[in-house]
Amino acid sequence: MQEIILVILAYLLGSIPTAVWVSKYFFKIDIRNYGSGNAGATNTLRVLGSKAGAFVFAIDMIKGFIAVDLAYLIAHYQMSNIDLTNFQVVLGIAAVVGHIFPIWANFKGGKGIATLFGMILAIQPMVAGSLVIVFFLMLFLTRYVSLSSITASIAFPVLIFFIFREPEIMYRLFALATAILVVLTHHKNINRLLSGNESQINLFKKKDQE
């Protein structure tokens, strides 16, 4: 019963629509009506500028981090590494699902990349750090956020299987499923990349003044 309550709580935490609230309360718009229509950090960066985008990314990442750490509220999971990892994965997935389908924003959210990163950071900081390097290296080379996200997601199972050699089967399957899911959710971006129509970004761009 405690596990079910924490999974629901993780979903509700992930459902906090940071981009929607920031865009409405500070910019008087609904971010979902602009740009790509996604309520995430990338679209916020494109539409509202780097400061707003960074803030949204940070809060969405913290959602995933805190959701995973809810596992420590149950004493049993403080004593078993395998059970802890498995339950953390479940909580993290609940938070990511909440971000993608937020109950507080009519189930129309973002793609969950920042929340997913926060989840990985809480479970395996070294893996998260490696993914940050992959992401920003690709972003520096191409200036495509979507391609950087896709590349980092594919690097995730590669790191888990071959570099860090994670023994827990559920986490290995999660890493593989994550890569597949991110690629699928970015299918429109992939089409735009192939056609040369994907938008590039400048990390230091300020919000355009009307």
What would the keywords be for this entry?
single chain, 210 residues, mainly alpha, 2 domains
Short description:
This protein is mainly alpha-helical and 210 residues long. The chain is built from ten helices and no strands.
Task: Please provide a written account of the structure.
With 210 residues, this protein is mainly α. The chain has 2 domains: 1-123, no CATH class; 124-201, no CATH class. The chain has 10 helices and no strands. Helix 4 packs across helix 6, helix 6 (113-123) packs antiparallel against helix 7 and helix 7 runs antiparallel to helix 8 (145-163). The longest helix is centred in the first third of the chain and has 20 residues, at 50-69.
Topology:
Blueprint: H1 2-14, H2 18-27, H3 41-48, H4 50-69, H5 81-100, H6 113-123, H7 125-142, H8 145-163, H9 169-185, H10 187-195
Helix pairs in contact: 1-4, 1-5, 3-4, 4-5, 4-6, 5-6, 6-7, 7-8, 8-9
Low-confidence stretches: none
Overall shape? globular
State the helix count.
Answer: 10
Tally of domains = 2
> Main sheet?
none
Roughly how many Å apart are the termini?
Answer: 52 Å
Number of strands: 0
Q: Report strand %.
A: under 5%
H/E order of the elements? HHHHHHHHHH
What is the averaged pLDDT score? 91
Class per helix and strand makeup: mainly alpha
